[in-house]
Amino acid sequence: MEDEHGSNGSSNGHVEIGKAERSVWLMKCPLVVAKSWQSHPPSDPHPLAKVIVSLDPLHADDPSSRQFTMEVAAVETGNKPKNYSLNMFHDFVPMSIFSETNQGKVAVEGKVEHKFDMTPHRENIEEYGKLCRERTNKSMIKNRQIQVIDNDRGVHMRPMPGMVGLISSSSKDKKKTAPVKQSDMKRTRRDRGELEDIMFKLFERQPNWALKQLVQETDQPAQFLKEILNELCVYNKRGTNQGTYELKPEYKKSVEDTNAE
């Protein structure tokens, strides 16, 4: 069958399944860790990190008694944390991992056995908070450039066809153009890491925010904001802060430490 369908590409419908039953771990890691690993030279034989599994000898057969931590092998200078907690998901949709080469060859790399959420370890929360503040301050700096145009004769200042608010030169067609509402304008997504930094800065200002307020403050699409909020915050369904978001405890501590400083 392999000779008939070929083995070099997905265009002929062939998918390599030799590793389909291999167990793999799916892990969601902070942006700073992902960028560090992506920049790791492929020729470097040293491991990226080390996973430590702690077991309760009295309940060794109970999967919930296992605790996972990760120690990043090579950490650059600065406030980048070295130790992380791996929070395991015990209930998730069965998934498989696929890969595709530049030639279009598709292969199944394995099936997801464990899914983790990677967060800075307790003793590294303060360092991680400092790192987030540094990234926030950098993202708030806007680099503006001024360009001098010679002999332009006002060409670049003239309204072009399709511009909002353009009024016809004909006296018969002169009509007031309705102003475009802010909510009707398409918002452009920021870089995910940059938006996370801005969110931390906002929660330093006040602990609780409604989604509508955050949309106005960040000028980001509501759906995109919800994705970030689900990762960083908890939603208050009742109580005095009903209908607002607040930082998760592990992130709230870094903000409180910032205010204390």
Automatic annotation (TrEMBL):
Keyword terms of this UniProt record:
DNA-binding, Nucleus, Transcription, Transcription regulation
| Disordered: annotated span | 166-190
Signal peptide annotation = none
Gene Ontology MF annotations: DNA binding
Q: What InterPro entries does the record tag this protein with? A: TFIIF_beta, TFIIF_beta_HTH, TFIIF_beta_N, TFIIF_interaction, WH-like_DNA-bd_sf, WH_DNA-bd_sf
Entry's localization field: Nucleus
* Name the UniProt record assigns to this protein: Transcription initiation factor IIF subunit beta
Q: Which domain of life is it from?
A: Eukaryota
Gene3D superfamilies on file:
Winged helix-like DNA-binding domain superfamily/Winged helix DNA-binding domain
Q: Which Pfam families match?
A: TFIIF_beta, TFIIF_beta_N
The answer to whether keyword Signal applies is no
Provide the GO biological process annotations. transcription initiation at RNA polymerase II promoter
Residues in TFIIF beta subunit HTH domain copies:
189-252
Q: Which family does it belong to?
A: Belongs to the TFIIF beta subunit family.
Major localization class: nucleus
Q: Cellular component terms, GO, for this chain's entry?
A: transcription factor TFIIF complex
List residues of the TFIIF beta subunit N-terminal domain: 22-134
